[in-house]
Prior knowledge:
By secondary structure, this protein is of the alpha/beta class. It is built from 6 helices and 14 strands. The protein has helices at residues 47-57, 97-108, 185-192, 206-209, 220-229, 246-262, and strands at 2-7, 28-32, 38-41, 61-67, 89-95, 126-129, 137-139, 142-148, 156-162, 165-170, 197-201, 234-238, 268-271, 277-279.
Amino acid sequence: xxxxxxxxxxxxxxxxxxxxxIGGNTTCLEVFADDEMRVIVDAGTGIRxxxxxxxxxxxxxxxxxxxxxxxxxxxxxYTFFAPAYSxxxxxxxxGNPMAQEVLRHDIYGRNDNRYFxxxxxxxxxxxxxxxxxxxxxxxxxxxITTMNLNHPGNGYAYLFECGGKRVAFVTDNELGLQYxxxxxxKDIISFCQGxxxxxxxxxxxxxxxxxxxxxxxxxxxxxxDLAHKAGVPHIYLTHHAxxxxxxxxxxxxxxxxxxxxxxxxxxxxxxxxxGDSFSV
Length: 280
Ligand SMILES: [Zn+2]
Ligand SMILES: [Zn+2]
């Protein structure tokens, strides 16, 4: 699998010179499997650039879009996702039903221009919504397992498996609090058990978190502890706070590595950076 980060910012886009290195676009991840099966996770503002790149690389074809939850920072880019306007493309939308509902009925609507000037009927692609939970979801060589998030309004985390390799994508998840409809710490450890790579929300610092309990996010300390308990060798921290400049993100990475070293965890840690890819 090749995983590409098209947007790793949390809450709201944060463009500008101060964020040029880490990136300012909100959540969008591309999973590309050996059999050329492609799954896009979330339609944050990062999906605009991905759409433009797909129009060149794949002028016709099928795209799978998998949604974690309905919050705006995970859907706002869809209105500028070029393949949705292309007669030559078809799109299957999977994942969180509330996110699908917001996409179909609130953002576009039918003859309703409150949020966006274009209506759902104007989208040229053949778009199919699958709003029932399919768990696991099999798409070609990819097996995708779902877990409920601890997040306001809930949502889904995803585990991608292909050719014996496993990558977990857990964004907008509060490790320090259990929500109704969410998951116990034990369930989360078992979901992440032994994955090759864990990409997890680490929006807040340990200093900030106590004043942000109930906001649905985690710290690098909580993510590193989870990875250690689940026997995960590699983590990417994502959903960077919008006010965090490049330098602040680098300080967080240094502090995370200092913590990992102090605890003697067998774990490597990186920041999820817009435009970066990794393969497993
Ligand atoms: Zn978010
Ligand atoms: Zn959210």
